[in-house]
Design brief:
44% strand; mainly beta; globular; six-stranded mixed β-sheet; four-stranded antiparallel β-sheet
């Protein structure tokens, strides 16, 4: 195959790609299977569940300049949920790095719990040192107890949750059979 033909095949493939619009059980987040790999997840592509808050803005993806894909999920209020449909080929612990915005102070941080299928429950607090709020990065671990498909739910607590831009998932430790890639 000559270079021009290879380029044409690559260009055709690139032009035929469609941009992902949402993660779902049929098209889930795929956790990395090899140490050092990362899975990037834009928050606005995840399903959200809004709980009525007496006329307050509903949780939703909104345009926000400066965010990684031009959007973030905000108005993540008490009891609202963000769902991560996932597949993890390997059980173990994964580190989640979340880029977000918080205007909560350390004395009363934003808070959310992390629950779901085949995971150990955990939670995270998010706060800013800037009284007007700031972009912050928060890291927490998710332990997958059984390989396969599942759902992870982030649920905002009494102090609400932050506005979320994206998640980056990296393997921390694996259990069971090891792959050499």
């Amino acid at each position: 195959m000559d270079m021009l033909h290879a380029y044409q095949i690559l260009e055709t493939a690139a032009n035929d790609m469609t941009k992902r619009t949402q993660f779902s059980a049929d098209d889930p987040v795929v956790f990395p299977t090899v140490s050092g790999d990362k899975t990037h997840v834009e928050a606005e592509l995840l399903p959200v569940t809004d709980v009525s808050h007496d006329g307050e803005q509903p949780i939703a993806a909104r345009v926000q300049e400066g965010q990684s894909n031009g959007y973030w999920v905000n108005w993540f209020k008490r009891d609202d949920e963000i769902t991560i449909p996932y597949v993890a080929e390997r059980k173990g612990t994964y580190t989640v790095t979340m880029d977000c915005f918080s205007d909560a102070q350390a004395s009363k941080p934003n808070h959310f719990t992390v629950t779901g299928d085949k995971i150990e429950e955990t939670s995270a607090d998010v706060s800013s040192t800037d009284i007007n709020g700031a972009d912050v990065t928060v890291t927490f671990d998710i332990t997958i107890t059984e390989a396969g498909a599942g759902t992870i739910t982030l649920k905002a607590g009494e102090a609400n949750g932050p506005s979320i831009d994206k998640f980056v998932i990296t393997p921390k430790t694996f259990e069971g059979p090891y792959r050499i890639d």
